[in-house]
Amino acid sequence: xxxxxxTVRVVGCGATKLGNRLGxxxxxLMAEAVQGALSSARLELDDLDGLIAVPSMSDPHLMEAHYLxxxxxxxxxxxxxxxxxxxxxxxxxxxxxxxxxxxxAENCQAVVIAAGDAVSSLxxxxxxRRADAGIGCDRLPSPxxxxxxxxxxxxxxxxxxxxREQLAKVPCLMSHQASKHPHAITxxxxxxxxxxxxxxxxxxxxxxxxxxxxxxxxxxxxxSSRFLEKRGLLNKGNHGNGDVVILSGGEASGPLSPPVVIxxxxxxxxxxxxxxxxxxxxxxxxxxxxxxxxxxxICFLRAIEAVGxxxxxxxxxxxxxxxxxILADENYVLPVNTHGGLLSFGAPWEAPAIFxxxxxxxxxxxxAGAQQVAEDCRRALVYGNGGIFxxxxxxxxxxxxxxxxxxxxxxxASSPKL
Length: 418
Prior knowledge:
Shape: globular
Number of strands: 11
Radius of gyration: 20 Å
InterPro entries: Thiolase, Thiolase-like, Thiolase_C_2
CATH class of the largest domain: Alpha Beta
Largest sheet: 9 strands, mixed
CATH architecture of the largest domain: 3-Layer(aba) Sandwich
GO molecular function: acyltransferase activity, transferring groups other than amino-acyl groups
Protein name: Non-specific lipid-transfer protein
Number of domains: 2
Helix content: 25-40%
Strand order of the largest sheet: 3-2-4-7-1-8-11-10-9
Low-confidence stretches: 404-418
CATH topology of the largest domain: Peroxisomal Thiolase, Chain A, domain 1
Distance between the termini: 23 Å
């Protein structure tokens, strides 16, 4: 029989506990997450021939991936590829797509992706100093990143009519999700009043509308289906719950900070999402779970519109509708960020999108418990955002594609529309 077409699969996921001031370095947290991912994939360290790392803020190193690979004993080693990727909060999804390319084009067979940080261990003053310096925009007062998102919030409100109360409902939705997740930091649901009465950070943002700064790390392992088949591990990944296929991806870029005149040309998520949908040949209504970046409410709002959950300019109305549903039914499962996102799960600087990938794998494997979005979750979309809408990366994941007898004999996969 001809060989079946190779697919690249997520076969292992690992994550540390998230917490405040854990007293550990980013490197040590990432090393623990890598070991967890190896265990999940039933692989050993020597099985890996690639490593990608997202740099940390709290403990930065020249060539972060080389540092981590050396720390955990993967270097020196022949025929081993190591890459550091910094596209801000988009980094883990960018790295996921880079891992796929390393397998498809560079002859790797198993690549680990790691992201983590210990930013809550920094003083608030030092954290803001480093974050402000990273943006490097004199027009933005400290805190630069929240103020940048604040400008965009004002523009979006003026352009599309979203209200302050609608934006304040986003942390309420995310806390509803997180309250049911066993590993989320937030354990109770917020009210709109609590959000609006929390300390003001910028004129447009209060404390509960900001990503929750935490320590922690995550790791995922991607592998070639042919390698897995040779090892007798095909469809046995993720603690035996099954492999998850990387179906498609898309990336796009915008300016590092908001331009003097803000308009639609600065945003990149829609382009990245369209590229991913085109490659996968699926539509938004064929996605069962969305893991969307939500560092601030405006980021979540732009994301739900960009990926096609609702039309452009209608995000505020959609948020209102979902908020009414969680008020009416505390068991309602919103098929977006079932872990609680950055606002309620926890945010170790550039790492949080890796937790969205891990949550997508849980959903596709059908092991999300009370947060399971569908009895048969078939496809998931994850989106990472870096800077102030500066970098976008989108990946679409799916259950393994099924083959009928004719297609198997021809070595051709069936349609991704499972």
